[in-house]
Amino acid sequence: MNPTRADLIGPLDMFKIGIGPSSSHTVGPMIAALDFRKNVIDQHIKKLGGAAGHLLHVTVELFGSLSATGQGHATDGAVCAGLIGLHPKSAEPDAIWAAMPDLESSGGIDTGKVKIRFTPSIDILWQGFLMDGNGLPHPNTMRFRLYDSDKLISECLILSVGGGFIETTDEEGKRRPPEREESLATVPHPYNSAAEFIEQCVKTGLTPWQVVIENQESLGMTEVQLRKNLNDVLDTFTRCIERGLNTEGILPGGLNVKRRAKGLYQQLKEGKMPAWAGNDLRPSVYAMAVNEENAAGGKVVTAPTNGSSGLIPAVWRTLQESNNLTQTDLQNGLIVASVIGALVKVHASISGAEVGCQGEVGTSCAMAAGGAVAMLGGSPFQIEQAAEIGIEHHLGMTCDPIKGLVQVPCIERNAMGAVKALNAAALSLASDGNHLISLDRALEVMKQTGLDMNQKYKETATGGLALG
Question: Which residues contact 275 (CB under 8 A, 6 or more apart)?
Fold first, then answer.
C-alpha cells in the first residue's frame, strides 16, 4: 500500500534501509521486481504444480526517467536482484550487484523448480517516454510480463514514485486510488496538513513525536518496535558516515569523480581548514561521506530519497556531537522529520522525476530542519517554521545529474543542504514561530513549480548540468 494520507505514513515508511545509488531508480525497481517475483511468477509456478514442461519467460520494460537515466542508476541491476528474490534492506551489496552478471551468463532465473528464461541484455527493454503510443501514468513506469510457452500470462504496470515507494495501476493503466483498507483506517490523532498536525499537538498537549507514536500504535506498530527499528536506521547512518570518512578512490560510472570526504575530514581533524570555516564544514563533510557511499552502491537510508540520503545523517551527527543528544532524542527527531516528509509526499512529491530536486534535497532539508528543532526543544510552531524555510529556499531546484549518476551535483548538493537545514533550525529557534508563508502553502507552490518545470530538468539527463 502507498498511503495518500500523511497520518498513515510512518517513520519507517520514510526511512527505509536500502541500497544506492537511487531510491526511485534502484530501490523502487528492486522492490517492484521482487513483488512481481513473489506475487506473479511464484504464484503461477505454484498453480502449475512445479511447471514441468512449461517454458516460462520474463520481460521488463523501463519507461520515462527510468529509461533515460536508469543505466547510470543501475536500474537494470536492481531489477535483476529483485527477480532472483533479494530485498534491498536485507541483501548485501555484493550479492545485489552480482545478480545481473549471473543472470546474463546463465540466461535464466532459477526458482528451484523451474528455470525461467531471462537474459538482462535482451529482456530488459529501455523504452523512452511513450508506452504503446500514449503518455505514462508516472515518469518512472515499469512493465513486467510473464509468458508461458510464448503466451502472455500476466502483465503488471508498477510505478516507482520516489523514496522506495511503489504503486500499481488499474486495468486502464491509471494510478490506483487508495486501497479500501486505507480509506477505513482511523488514528487517534488524524491530520493531513501541517496546520492539522500542529492543532493535534496543541489540542492533546502531546509532544509532536508522541502524536505520531500513538497513531502508529493504533496501526499495529508498538513504540518499542518503532524505536528498535529507528535504532537500526541510526546505526545505518553511523556506519555509512564512517565508511565514507575512511574510503578513498574513484566513484563508479565513468565520470571519474574522486571521493573527497576522507581528505576533507582529515583536514578538519588536523586543523588545516581556515579559521572562519572550522567546524562549520562538519555537516558538509558528513553529508558528502554518505552520498559518496550511496553513489558507490552501498547501504544507505532513504531520507527521504537516496539522492538526498546524506543530509539528515549529517545534521543528526553534527547535533549529537555539539549537544550531547541521547539516542531517544535522535529517534524523536526522526519521528518528527518523517511527518514533514509524509506531508511533502502527499501534497507535492519526493521524486526528482516529478518535481525536480526541490522534492529530494529540498524535502530532506525541511525534514532535517524540523527534526533538529524538535530535538533541541522547539515548539510545534517553530518546527513548522523551520521546515517551511527548508522548502522555501529550494523551490525550483532542478534534477539534472550528469550522465544520470547520483554524483554531480548531488553529492555537494547534500553538503549545502545540511548547512541550510541547520541555519533554518537556528532561525526558527530564535523566533516565536510566527511567519508569513506556511509549510502547507510552500508545498502547494512546490507541486505547481514541479508541474511547470520542463521535463529536461526532471531526472532525464537531457538539460541543465547534465549536458556538461
Answer: none
Domain shared by 363 and 399, yes or no = yes
Q: What is the pTM of this model?
A: 0.94
Angle between helices 223-245 and 311-323 (to 10 degrees): 100
- Crossing angle of helices 75-83 and 93-106, in 10° steps, is 80
Both 205 and 318 in one domain: the answer is: yes
Same domain, 239 and 108: no
Asked if the peptide bond before residue 409 counts as cis, ω within 30 degrees of 0, the response is yes
pLDDT band at 112 (very low <50, low <70, confident <90, very high): confident
User: Is residue 142 located within the same domain as residue 208?
Assistant: no
Q: What is the pLDDT of residues 415-431, one digit of tens each?
A: 999 999 999 999 999 99
Distant-in-sequence, close-in-space partners of 97: CB < 8 Å, separation ≥ 6? 74, 77, 81, 297
Cell digits of residue 453: 518545470
Q: Are residues 85 and 196 in the same domain?
A: no
- Grid cell of 251 as nine digits: 566513484
Element (H, E) at 243: helix 223-245
Which stretch of DSSP H or E encloses residue 124? strand 124-126
Handedness of CA 157, 162, 163, 167 (dihedral sign): negative
User: Could you report the per-residue pLDDT of 283-293, keeping only the tens digit for each?
Assistant: 999 999 999 99
Q: Which residue has 523451474 as its cell numbers?
A: 114
Any idea what the Cα angle at residue 116 is, between residues 115 and 121, rounded to 5°? 120
Q: Is 145 part of a structural domain of the chain?
A: yes
pLDDT at 331 (0 to 100): 99
Q: What is the DSSP string of 303-343?
A: SS-STTTTHHHHHHHHHHHHH---HHHHHHHHHHHHHHHHH
Q: Where are the alpha helices (DSSP H) in 41-193?
A: 42-48, 65-69, 75-83, 93-106, 120-123, 180-184
Within-domain flag for 182:
no
Residue located via cell numbers 510457452: 149
Same-domain check for residues 403 and 431:
yes
On whether the CB atoms of residues 352 and 404 are closer than 8 A, the answer is no
User: What residues make up the domain containing 377?
Assistant: 6-16+188-467
- So what's the pLDDT on residue 54? 81
User: Does 308 share its domain with 197?
Assistant: yes
Question: By C-alpha distance, which of 374, 283, 306 is closest to 335?
Answer: 374
pLDDT at position 67 over 90: yes
For all residues of the chain together, what is the average pLDDT?
Answer: 95
Considering the domain boundaries, does residue 169 fall inside one? no
Q: How confident is the model at residue 280 (pLDDT cuts 50, 70, 90)?
A: confident
413, 375, 301, 63: CA torsion to nearest 10: -60
